[in-house]
Amino acid sequence: MDRQILKGRGNETAMSRRSFLQGTGLLLGFAFTGTSPESVFAASASQVVENEVVGTFAPNGFTRINPTGAVRLIMPMVEMGQGVYTSLSMLLAEELEVRLDQIQVQHAPPNHALYVNSIIGIQNTGGSASVRAFWTPLRQAGAVGRNLLIAAAAKRWNVDPATCRAKGGIVFDKSGSKHLSYGELADDAAKLPVPAAASVKLKDPKDFALIGTRAKRVDSSIKVDGRALYGIDVRLPGMTVAAVAISPVLGGKAKTVNEKAALAVKGVRQVVNIDEAVAVVADHMGAAKKGLEAASITWDDGPNGKVNNADIVRQLEEESSKPGVVARSDGDAGKALAAAAQRLDAIYQVPFLAHAAMEPMNCTVHLQKDRCDIWVGTQAPTITQALVVELTGLPKDAIKIHNHLIGGGFGRRLEADGTVLAVKIAKHVDGPVKVIWSREEDIQHDMYRPYYLDRLSAGLDVAGRPVAWTHRIAGSSIFARYYPPYIKDGLDPDAVEAAAEPPYALPNIHVDYVQVEPRGVKTSWWRGVGPTHNVFVVESFMDELAHAAKRDPVAYRKELLSHNPRALAVLSLAAEKAGWGSPLPPRHGRGISVQFAYGSYVSQVAEVEVAADGSVKVKRIICALDCGMHVNPDTIEAQIQGGTLFGLTAALHGSITFKDGRVEQSNFDSYLPMRIDEVPEVETYLIKNAEAPGGVGEAPTAIVSAAVTNAIFAATGKRVRSLPIDTDSLKSSS
Length: 734
What we know:
Distance between the termini: 62 Å
Strand order of the largest sheet: 12-13-10-20-17-18-19
Number of strands: 29
Strand content: 15-25%
Number of domains: 3
Radius of gyration: 27 Å
């Protein structure tokens, strides 16, 4: 992590964090916590080292300007395809008045105090929070740096700083005849008194030159020409490679291992048995895989060998019949429901889902007596470091995380189980070892998006307006395991997000949550969790209400959104661009959904065709998004497209099921990704306003399934209440 530097044009340079801090030039540090936005400072690099040692000031991020004029941003967020390296660099570059290609990005080391994500509360990349968390601090840091550099130039020229200006990393005097580069000014600027960030005026959005433009991504060139290094690309002197087999049942362990046969394979060096897994260590991956196959491992399934999907669903059904922890209770939903002119009840279900990222789980570890070096792509470096400290007994400073680009995270790399397993194996290996999971191990030992079962009831008055709404959510609590401080009085805020605060005006609403932890299954984040099921449930049930009221789904929603102008705007725009209400052929339909989640408002319209055999073809997706201020519209549109297809894949195909404690799916033949001929046209329409940016990456993943299933109802009259879509139930009866 501390040795790889990603420059704007993809060049890489080896540099340790300490040598970086001991260099010359201007170093800017700024608070990311959101609690002290004015705590922006500048000092010489040596002073910062001293401050870090004595703990008098611990900023959460740094920007260094060296004598060449290059600007290095120590990036607390990790790049996994979402474009965050470009977007966050744009924030700094805008106020600092440098070109984007002058920014160098260096992975941040694990340090909660310095690099906390203020939206989440710990150092990790997730929750569609990167731009939201750093929107103000990075611009403040740039503005303070710009002012210091201008002041340094003005002092040299003996003029008023107000008469000078900066552009492209150069300060000019009033006439433009004198100019000094940032590199020439860095040391002088570091000696000046630092203005409080709050006193430094940020640019008016109308004056933005970079923010809001379709800037080219800083990581594109190295990904196109192959120079980009992902975790799986790590190669070290003397490194061996390990293929791994993990117990197919959670809690099981190896019963028999034919080590002699494995060691007989050319290139195999050793067999490592750590109970829950067996690794074959070899000179290369081919030998390791052959050795693992030759080992002919048999397993003791342990206590979870009889876990089946039907049992899990039965548990959820039983637990969801009991009252849960109240997430919201306005009015008297029970009384209003009893007095309603019409009552509707429904049960919705969504399955376990795997991440199935293109880069399978991998980690390279070199464990020595006094240190442990880890090369990995992780979304959660501090959590990873803490678990390795616990496992090895080494001090935190001895655990060096060298973070890399990630070939698809989707929340999977928020977990450190792959690193923990690799360190356990490395304890038995002399020298660095790269542990790689096969695609089968990756899918069958994932940490899955929870299975949820939801019970809903609604009451309508004689005019068809909702007068009562109740929603009970039953499923795993990821926060209870991952970050317990987020749990308040037994309520997991993620599990109820987009359900406890739907965008609609509902006079009597009661939402509660029942935590249910299925035996033999590990659950975790999945490109958004709570909203990925809650939006499907809420928007599908809202469609049911519109149908019961004999109203058009768009018109019905509009009446309930009159108090919510941003939600109403995205709904209206999506419907308009989709040609809502225009005629379609038989067994074609349009469906709409709307949501507020991750700080953004989104609406989607799906247009589908359902064939007589029940197969579903999604022909077109229209998305309207209000995410506040745009940083890079090109990245936003790419996120909408990618997130939509990710969510659509799950709606059409995604399901992890258990039989005899084992995951039944194993590769892309049984856990299907969308094929290219299934991909619809995705149109994106952005609403720009002056609001601070909202999150984008997970928003389309959450909203697309309801738009599609509502469209299926419009085409067939058949309601889809569970995912993935059961095409057999959609067959034409004629």
